[in-house]
Amino acid sequence: MRIVKTIWTYFGQSQPVSIRVLHLAVIFLVASQLITSNFVDLDHARRLGDSLSFDFGTWTHILPGMALAAIATIFVLTELFRRGLKFFFPYLWGDWSALKSDLKTLAGRKLPEALPGGLAAIIQGLGLGALSLTLISGLTWFLLAQAGSGLAHAAIELHQILTSLVVVYVIGHGGMGVLHIFLWLRTRSR
What SS3 class is residue 120? Predict the structure, then answer.
């Protein structure tokens, strides 16, 4: 429980309680999705038709996926309204200043502070985008499969490709999060 308390305290430096709860719920549900995706019967799932009677492994992925879609939508919209598009996507406005500053800091072998439009914010924006696209493709597959559409096959393949982006993001973002917490703990103990 000490680890959870430490993470909660660390997040508390930059996130209000509502965002921390949503963030942790998204982390938990994404992890469950990555695990349960191994149990989806794709041959059967590609041809759902108008029947909801498919195997348990597929349901253990779809039901939490629907919960994740709802929670992630709230999370993404809350973050976008709280911080604005320019916070996460400054390059769309041609603003590279914070990113250049962060890259100089990294070149000096130091971790930059998380600032609007900086490296951390841009990476968070890419994560919000990858998560959104993956959820949209998963929901699209489900609806197309329910309708018996031949496009369900293409949708599930797109969903699998986009899931790869989320896996890369989870590894990178999670790894950097662990590093930041480690360095924060080391600084606090001094």
Answer: helix
Q: Residue ranges of the domains in the chain?
A: 2-189
3-state SS assignment for residue 134: helix
Residue 162 · residue 134 · CB < 8 Å? yes
pLDDT single digits (tens) 38-65: 888 766 555 554 445 456 778 888 899 9
For 47, other C-beta atoms within 10 Å of its C-beta total 14
Backbone conformation region of residue 109, classed left if phi is above 0, alpha if psi is from -120 to 50, else beta:
left
pTM here? 0.84
SS3 content of the chain, % helix, strand, coil (to 5): 80, 0, 20
**2-189: what CATH class?**
mainly alpha
Q: Per residue in 88-129, pLDDT tens?
A: 999 999 999 999 999 999 999 988 888 899 999 999 999 999
Q: Let me know how long the chain is.
A: 190
